[in-house]
Design goal:
3 domains; 19 helices; 6-stranded antiparallel sheet; single chain; alpha+beta
């Protein structure tokens, strides 16, 4: 399926490689050369890969091996935790086997991502807390879990709540009772582990969590029911039997480990507050799957407990159905892994290779998928999703404002999914496609085609018009000059504007070509740059290049024609003009010779 190429199913893995390489080479947490950024949502995984980078420049194979090893550790810890909670080897074995046959977790184990690291850390923390209560080991595991994924903060809060409640009453026999000294010590150790990266993030962005958390947690509603629905759909398809048995398992676990039940249900309920839709096959809740399997297997054990005389047939039939409910999806997830990897190879990896070979390394490129592109050819970039470019956050989803930002950042090339930014690349005079990459499927990639554009932004740092003018329109906008050239059937005109003061209305440009009798023979009326640079977004000092193609009537007689231009609104009419020749608040630019 991948043509024999070894790869990864997410471009995000390449993001980790880039951070890890820079960190291992002594450049700190940087992504683009020399620019510190708190863009790693999993600094623990980055540091782990950076250790690999001390010995080799190949991160692909080691990262795949590490994620697979943590998957195996996840299976073992699931067995240990289930045995600790239920004291039944059948439950422990069934839960561990259920995890081993869960397609999404198998996918995660071959994703080269931090999912299985975080999963094993959360399992280890809950297991150790259940066995020994609060202590140095529990605090360290919790701290590392939160450095592997921000969702670890939720588990820490739940454990601390459980510990505080245990100082007043115990809900299970032999429950370790937390002392206030142990509580404060755990908080202190946990805080010390979080402090370095939190301070780094604060120093870079003014926020305590990584860029990626804020970039991906954009939501316009208080609670995303779409996320909740899609998340539960994934978990339902992972193992139908485990969810059918879940109520019985939670009832059983509630008397033995309320923390396990609270973590399983709590994160599922909280995730829709954070993200507006499910990312990457619901990978943010994949770490709950071992707890789902434990609860499901415990539910089957609860049924056996209620009907002891049918214990063997219940274990046999129920266990087989439990395992089949997960195993039947494994081939589909194996196929999904292949499709995902092929898409990343055909789009992101090939794009990265092409940019490295064809675009000078000092050119700033605006990019949607930033992983493989940067690892294969480090360069200055503007990340249009804001993962490593927090300056993009205020304009995400606003193509016109994004255009202003990209022009100010001197971005000359875009490598993007066109469907994500339709307005940004709608005008071929501004966005000229120079290379395309495509794939046949779309199972993980943002779009089936990525296009590289050479950009000619309307916003300029400087202008050199062929003809300079000094015409002031309404004391707010100055016409600085123009270029004009007559072709066979059209007049190519470029107007250069400068914003003098902030403009509140959105003005339209009118361009009239008049004959000697004063009749309009050709005209254009539209907002500047065809609406891509509206005047109400202009700021004082902005220089705007505004190109036009004015189509001439085929029967237009040869001769001299007068070219006039101005600004107006439908409500208030034309802006008054000061400086230069003008008629009826229309600036006279030049006389144009057309024909022979």
């Amino acid at each position: 399926m991948t043509g024999g190429q070894l790869g990864v199913p997410l471009d995000d893995a390449w993001i980790h490689y880039q951070y890890a390489r820079n960190l291992s080479q002594g450049e700190g947490f940087t992504y683009a050369p020399g620019v510190a950024t708190a863009g790693s949502t999993s600094p623990a995984w980055t540091v782990l890969l950076a250790g690999v980078g001390l010995f080799t420049g190949d991160f692909l194979v080691p990262s795949l091996v590490l994620s697979a090893l943590f998957f195996l550790l996840t299976v073992w810890l699931t067995h240990r935790l289930a045995l600790e909670l239920t004291e039944r080897w059948q439950v422990a074995l069934l839960a561990a086997a259920g995890v081993a046959l869960t397609g999404r977790l198998l996918w995660a184990g071959l994703s080269a991502m931090e999912v299985t690291l975080f999963t094993s850390l959360t399992l280890g923390a809950v297991w150790l807390y259940h066995r020994r209560g609060l202590g140095v080991g529990t605090a360290v595991l919790l701290g590392l879990a939160s450095q592997a994924r921000p969702e670890g903060h939720v588990l820490f809060a739940l454990i601390m709540l459980d510990a505080v409640l245990s100082t007043r009453w115990q809900y299970r026999p032999q429950q370790p009772v937390a002392t206030w000294r142990a509580i404060f010590m755990t908080v202190a150790i946990y805080g010390l582990i979080q402090l370095p990266y939190a301070l780094f993030s604060l120093s870079v962005t003014g926020k305590p969590l990584p860029n990626t958390f804020y970039a991906k947690s954009r939501t316009t509603t208080l609670y995303s029911w779409r996320t909740l629905r899609e998340t539960w759909g994934y978990h339902w398809r992972d193992n139908l039997m485990s969810l059918l048995l879940l109520p019985f398992g939670l009832a059983f676990l509630w008397r033995r480990s309320r923390l396990t039940a609270a973590w399983l249900l709590g994160l599922l309920i909280i995730i829709p507050v954070i993200v507006p839709f499910v990312w990457h096959h619901g990978r943010y809740t994949m770490p709950l799957l071992p707890f789902q399997m434990i609860a499901g297997a415990a539910g089957l054990g609860w049924i056996v407990q209620k009907v002891p005389r049918l214990a063997r047939p219940i274990w046999a039939v129920g266990g087989v159905l439990f395992l089949l409910a997960g195993a039947w999806r494994v081939p589909a997830w194996a196929e999904m892994l292949g499709y995902n990897t092929r898409e990343i190879q055909e789009i992101d990896v090939e794009l990265g290779k092409w940019l490295a070979a064809n675009i000078p390394p000092d050119e700033t490129v605006g990019i949607d998928d930033i992983g493989a592109v940067m690892f294969l050819g480090p360069r200055p970039i503007v990340d249009l999703n804001g993962l490593v470019s927090p300056e993009v956050w205020p304009v995400i989803g606003q193509d016109i404002a994004t255009m202003h930002l990209l022009a100010a950042s001197d971005v000359r090339y875009l490598a993007i999914f066109p469907g994500w930014h339709p307005l940004l690349v709608s005008d071929p005079q501004i966005a000229r496609p120079i290379q395309r990459f495509s794939t046949d499927t779309q199972t993980i990639i943002g779009g089936q085609e990525v296009v590289v554009y050479e950009m000619d932004w309307p916003y300029r740092r400087s202008i050199v018009p062929q003809v300079e003018t000094s015409v002031l329109l309404g004391d707010v906008i100055q016409l600085r000059g123009f270029d004009a050239q007559v072709a066979e059937a059209e007049l190519d005109l470029t107007i250069y504007w400068e914003c003098v003061t902030a403009v509140s209305p959105s003005y339209k440009v009118f361009i009239h070509l008049l004959d000697s009798a004063g009749n309009i023979v050709a005209q254009v009326d539209r907002p500047p740059v065809n609406g891509l640079a509206p005047t109400d977004l202009w700021q004082p000092g902005d220089l705007v290049r505004d190109p036009y193609q004015i189509y001439l009537p085929p029967d237009l007689p040869a001769g001299a024609y007068e070219l006039r231009v101005g600004l107006y609104t439908d409500e208030n009419g034309r802006l008054p003009i000061r400086g230069g020749d003008a008629v009826d608040n229309a600036a006279i630019l030049t006389s144009v010779e057309i024909g022979n």
